[in-house]
Automatic annotation (TrEMBL):
Protein's name according to its UniProt entry: RNA polymerase alpha subunit C-terminal domain-containing protein
Top-rank taxon, per record: Bacteria
Domain (RNA polymerase alpha subunit C-terminal) ranges: 42-80
Native source organism of the sequence: Ornithinibacillus salinisoli
Length: 96
């Protein structure tokens, strides 16, 4: 059964279609994508989920267990290797 997409307009006036309850605008996501740092390596849903949870630095990320991060809506298993590598490059790791 196909999910119906609804037309939405963000606060900046961008029009887009979405089938989920996720309020993020794809155009705004592209405009706001960081150019450096570990967040720049993640997909928009994963990046938005972390920022929404207040996790915007590797030091903050290192306070969480991998299982805790995976429970956040928007984070999938494909994001973990990227985060793990970024942590390791800074001498950090996920909480045990």
């Amino acid at each position: 059964m196909p999910v119906e997409k609804s037309l939405r307009v963000c606060e900046k006036g961008h029009k887009y279609y979405k089938s989920s309850e996720c309020p993020s605008c794809p155009t705004c996501d592209k405009e706001n994508k960081p150019t450096s740092g570990f967040l720049s390596k993640l997909s928009s849903p994963a990046r938005n989920a972390l920022v929404h949870e207040g996790i915007d630095t590797l030091k903050e990320l290192s306070k969480y267990k991998e299982k805790e991060i995976l429970k956040i809506h928007g984070i999938g298993p494909a994001s973990l290797p990227i985060m793990r590598t970024s942590l390791e490059e800074e001498g950090l790791s996920f909480k045990e």
